[in-house]
Amino acid sequence: GAKLLLHGLCSNTTVKSLDLKGNNLRALGAEVLGKLLLQNKSIRSLILEWNNLGMWEEAFSFFCQGLGANNFLQRLDLRNNQIDHRGAGELAVALKQNTSLQELDLRWNNIGLLGGRALLNCLHSNRTLKKLELAGNNVPSDILKAVEQAMDHNQDRQTILRETQNREYILSREVLSLKDEKTKQFLDLMDTIDKQKEEIARSGRMSAARVSQLQEALNEQHSLVNSLKARLQMTEAALALSEQKVHSLGELLNSAKQEQTSLAERHFMELQQQKQEGAGREGKLLHDLSDAKEKNLLLRSQVDELEKKCKVQQAKKDQLSQVKQDLTNTTAELKLRAMQAEECLKMEKRRFKQSLEDMESLRVREVDRMTQHIEASERSMQDRIQRLEAVRIALEEELSQAKAAALAERGQAEEELMKVRNQARLEEQQRLEHLEEKLRLMTESRDEAQNCCLKQKQMVAEAQAKAHQLSLHADGLRRRLEELQQELNSKEEEKVTEVNKVKVELQEQIGHLQAERTAQDGLREKIAALERQLKALSSNHREALLDKEGEISMLLEKLRMKEADISRMRQEEAQRATFLQNAIMAYVQGSSLGTHSSRK
Hints:
By secondary structure, the protein is mostly helical. The chain has helices at residues 2-9, 27-39, 57-69, 85-97, 112-122, 141-237, 243-387, 396-490, 496-515, 520-540, 549-561, 563-575, 580-599; strands at 17-19, 45-47, 75-77, 103-105, 131-133. The chain has a domain at 1-139: Ribonuclease Inhibitor (Leucine-rich repeat, LRR (right-handed beta-alpha superhelix), Alpha-Beta Horseshoe), CATH 3.80.10.10.
């Protein structure tokens, strides 16, 4: 029944919680559960209390493989399943691979000391498990305390991650709000500038209207002047009649001119006042524009500072990208070397072809020379035969000897040609073999370069893994130190009052830290004084810790080797003022655990 049910749930995507408590699941059920965990992606809670999954090792190992490959399950209940230390070891291997499980209940099994140590060792690499229950498993108390500390460490780490994510989200929102405010202010400035431009245009129109009115007044005055000139002409014609009228008209003309000049001066003064008012308005508008520009520059500087902060957070990511670029550069160099090797091979082939062509040309020249030599010898023999035709009968024996000598020379020449051809062929074969050996060596060098590249990649991966292991080892050493401090506090029954005083002082310091962060230096000095007091107390009680001296010496040697890493991490933690409160709370909790154990 369980097999049919679990086969059906393998492809299900809606079930979030599965409760199979008290169903007597055995080997086949464990195997099917492992398959379910491999394939299902929706189940978040799985309860398997009161079954017998741990009795069959192979089936339980298959179940643990499925658990290690699953990245969606968050809660697993394995109470009363007869799991021994071997099953606990399988679970530890699965927890090293799993990245989603948060709660694991293993109460009332048979895990024992070995199983507890295996689970404790796996917690160094698991960063997601928050709750691990091991009651009723015959696990020593020190291992249980170490497991609790590991769980607290994981919870603190996850809370820190959540806080950093929340801070990043808040900063992004603030940056967006600042951008929106900047755009709004810019739009407001543009609106004010447009309004000021409209006001300037209106003032220009008003000034133009006033100028037109003044021009009309001047035109009227010009018309009056013309009329007065006409009157003057009339008066000049009537001068002969009456000189008294001329004098009176002259006085009238002078008074009219004075009035005209006074009116012109008044109009000119009004125009100057209007110009000064327009210049004052323009200066005010320019001053407002400069103020707006300064505000815009301030806003831009604030945005640049926020962008710099974001770039500082992204600097850490750039370091990882630089490592990747180094790997790509090494691969590119290897590719360039391979291309150079191929070019060298092409050059060798070309040289070999040229040498073959030179050998062919030499062979053709030698053949032509030999044929010419043979033709010349045949011509000389024919000349001799023509000269010695008269004595041909007497010298037939000599002619036969000469013919035999000529035939022997031709045979020798042919033998020499065969030898030359064979030597050329042998040299060509030797050159081909030499080139083939060069090709083989170049291919071997290329393979070696590729192997070196792969080895370098493996070395980089191993170095990263070693760095990760060293960080995990440092965390384990820290936990061990905390355990030793708790043991020392548990054996200091005579100094309980001093520890209580220290606790009161620390609580007061915590209140001061929450109220104001400026008192961090005083807290550090007090913490250093407390550490000195603890060291003095530990020196007074060394006689009671003889059974722990071996372990303490080993830990001190490891601490000396990792002192540089721990000091660097302490400096980073000291720089982060936001994490100081959590560290002091962890210290107070450790001291409270020590007092409780001492009272027991």
